[in-house]
Amino acid sequence: MMEQEPLESSRRKVLVIHPAALGDVLLARPAIRALRRRFQNHEMAFLGGRAVGMLLHDCGEVNQVFPIESAYLGELFAGSEYLSRPFRDWLEHADVAVGWLTDREGIVAGTLRAVGVRSIQFQPALSADYQAEHQADRYCEALGLEGAELQLGRRLALPSGIRRQGQQSLQALKVRRDTPLVVVHAGSGSVSKCIEPWRLAQVIGWLVAFGAAPLLLEGPADQNAVASVLSRLSHGVPVVRGESVSVIAGVLSQAALYIGQDSGITHLAAALGVPTVACFGPTDPRRWAPRGSHITVLTGLRCACPSWHDVEICGERACLQISPERIIEAIRAYLIERVLPHSENT
User: Is the CATH number of domain 160-339 3.30.200.20?
Assistant: First the structure.
């Protein structure tokens, strides 16, 4: 169990380690915020992916970032004698190190103890021992965080600079601003999590007829998915390509609605409070979907594949058979009831 914040201490820093992808880190935000409240007089550093770490930093949720791309985690596994001087200096003023990390042999914990970190608690991100169903709750359970410490549903507060970057990106693409912006993410971290492009193409066609302004997002792994959607459209749709996570967050902050799948970008839209329609399968939404009253989760049949390998070779993909009509029904409700309350469009 973690120690409570000491009443008097000359070493007032906390290190949080979460070497995971964007969506997993955003699911851990309630736990990170609970740690921030518990150690509110401490400086908090995040060791994980650079992009999500800098987003958390820019939004005021952590004070410093040690990017995993800069070998900080490797240094911890190598031993205290391999720590770079600035990192070692910071750690020598740390009281606590926590996170979701597999450290079975205690190597990282040993490195941290060697430089004087007193309270260390690491738990694996994935474990069959957790009792909670949702992954966000599992992250909290792993570190013994619960109750009043948790701030569930707190939105990610973007600074004005990131919002301006999003506006500038939209201006460069000449995106219409006189009609609701609907951001569509056709890809995911795995093609096995993506609905068929023709389904999204039909949804985008409906959006255009409705009078909304659809916009496609294309990340590094999304080129084929986006190209396939565009090839099925009879009209052009602007595409945001090659932008950082922060700029994408700025774009999302301008959206009236977001449509996506089980991806980090879907979790980002949800964290920003954007009304979100998320298509899930084969992953279980009861564990992995973002949560909130502004989120609608759609699924096909429950996935029957016994392993991820089976998912990858599955030809039926019944779990992702989500009809365009179901998606349209969900987004119509958002657009009419929340964005265009006086619209006569149906």
Answer: no
